Amino acid sequence: MDGDDMLRIIASDKDKDFRKQALKAEGKNFEARYLSSVRAFKNIRPLFEAIKREGGKIAIATDCTDPALRHYRAVLGVDDLIDVIACGEDVKEGKPSPKLVRLAVERLALLPLAQS
Question: 35 and 72 in contact (C-beta within 8 Å)?
Answer without folding.
Answer: no
